[in-house]
Design brief:
By secondary structure, the chain is mainly alpha-helical. The chain contains 11 helices and 3 strands; from the N terminus they run E-H-H-H-H-H-H-H-H-H-H-H-E-E. Strands 2-1-3 form a 3-stranded mixed β-sheet, with no helix packed on it. Helix 2 runs antiparallel to helix 3 (62-87). It is globular, with a radius of gyration of 21 Å. The termini are close together.
């Protein structure tokens, strides 16, 4: 059954509660920048990533390739998490430093354009669970997160919604690919707006295809498998982290009322 979040407290009451929580977080030093630790982690991840890529490109045994693909999948997740933290400004108090971390870890390695992604992600936090404005609530015709989403679909979409508890996990293998392609397509449509993303994406494809095919004599097919298989493996893991946080959550029905304070569910 669909539940909704609605405001019940005044704006002042809500602000008092929010300020108290923020003070608790700061008191536990959870907002302290982690620049040194993040730099050390990124350095180690780069070394491990280079070794795993080398195996993917030059290893011939299925056992070695499988291990390398899994290693790259896990490392891609770690690079994405560093980019996520950089986007929230939690690695350094210096904005340029956070952007550098985000571009190196996310755009260069994973191919998910950092500046384009963080713009959507901040909208998600600003309008969380607001079906009309939260970009993470936008779903294709094959799944529905809310009753309203289900009603708006075609007959085929409503039919597929009935089986989504099963087929959504099959589709999860494509989740990483869809996120990467959506981000890259957005940059391609507006390169003047995301010029840094566009530049780093050129470096991204040079790393994944130019280096192996142009310098190491690796076949395009081998490089393509190294590019696609790890992200496919990673899909269900990412879906288990992110999708589950939306399923069954209350939907914001009166977004304007959020300015008046806290929420209740009914």
């Amino acid at each position: 059954m669909q539940t909704y979040a609605e405001a019940t407290l005044s704006k002042h009451e809500g602000h008092v509660i929010w300020a108290a929580m923020l003070n608790d977080v700061k008191g536990l030093r959870l907002t302290t920048p982690t620049l040194g630790l993040s730099l050390a982690k990124l350095s180690v991840f780069f070394i491990l990533f280079a070794c795993a890529l080398w195996f993917c490109w030059l290893e011939s045994s299925w056992l070695g390739l499988t291990a390398a693909y899994i290693a790259i999948a896990l490392l891609l997740a770690q690079f994405a998490f560093i980019g996520h933290d950089a986007g929230h400004g939690s690695l350094s108090r210096n904005t340029s430093m956070n952007v550098m971390f985000g571009q190196l870890s996310m755009t260069l390695i994973t191919g998910l354009a950092f500046e384009e992604w963080i713009g959507r992600h901040r909208s998600h936090h600003k309008y969380c669970q607001d079906e009309s404005r939260d970009p993470d609530m936008e779903v294709a015709f094959v799944v529905s997160l809310t009753e309203a989403s289900k009603r708006s679909k075609s007959a085929l979409g409503r039919l597929m919604t009935r089986t989504q508890p099963v087929h959504i996990w099959l589709l999860s293998f494509l989740f990483g690919h869809s996120q990467r392609l959506m981000s890259q397509a957005s940059v391609l449509r507006r390169p003047h707006l995301f010029w840094l993303d566009a530049t780093m994406l050129i470096a991204h494809f040079a790393l994944w295809f130019g280096v192996p095919c142009g310098l190491l004599g690796v076949s395009v097919e081998t490089a393509l498998l190294a590019y696609l298989i790890p992200l496919t493996i990673l899909g269900p893991y990412l879906a288990a982290i992110f999708w589950v946080n939306h399923i069954g959550m209350p939907v914001v029905r009166d977004a304007a009322a959020l300015d008046r304070g806290q929420l209740r569910q009914r």
